[in-house]
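Thread: Newbie trying to understand structure tokens

Hi all, I'm a second-year student working on a class project, and my supervisor (Dr. K.) asked me to get a predicted structure for one chain before our next meeting. I've only ever worked with sequences, so writing a 3D structure as a token string is new to me. If someone could post the tokens and maybe explain what I'm looking at, I'd be very grateful. Here's the chain:
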Amino acid sequence: MTAPQKINPRLKILIPVVRGLAKILGKDYEVNLHDVSMPEHSLVLCENGYVTGRSEGGPMTDFGLFMLQSEEYQNKDGIYNYLAKNNRGELIKCSCIFIRDENEKTIAFLCINYDLKKAIAAQELIESLVKVDMGKIEQYPENFDPPSGQSGKFPEPVRESFAQDLEEVMGDSLAQAKRRIGKPLQYLTKPEKKQVIKELHDKGFFLLKGAVDTLAAEMGNTKFTIYAYIRDIQKNSKS
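---
Reply by user tm_fold:
Sure, no problem. This is what the structure looks like when written as tokens:
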């Protein structure tokens, strides 16, 4: 099979790994390879993309940008088995392996997303079969351990937007900021604008090409003003 177009030569060795994992795990597993050097269209290889609705050439997710930007993940090998929701609102179980070069710099993400629909349906079926009306049991048998009622509970999923294009990634990040603060960004005070810009910076928003221009239009400022805010934030974080 031919290699995807414009893939980093250092990542070509992973092409059969991605395709092989997709065949081994099955159609409910989406296996992706992201080139983190180009977050606007980082998805260079995507197998079983219907799990999240994405395809090759798509952008990195907002959570992926956050992992690139955050110091918390700089010394980790990856993040495994966290819950998220795809853009249809369905639960998926996600894992991301960080691929690093000889200088320990992250150059790629190898991601596996598992569609939980069938697993959840099977779990609900099993729970319905083993469900017991405890009120009708007058005496428990010896060594009987009643159900705790906690099986089937899921932890809160990670908020991750599996966007299909760059505009959707940026739009979703800005929508989150507007929902949190409760008003359009153009009506914010200067301290409020700085706080929003810091939050977006920490999430990796400005790693995306055109992010500064997009935010400047939303806030009613020039891009030079936004760049000045970003420099202040970076200066304060270093100090």
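A couple of things are worth pointing out once you decode it. The CA atoms of residues 177 and 199 lie 8 Å apart. Confidence is low (pLDDT under 50) at residues 137-152. Feel free to ask follow-ups in this thread.
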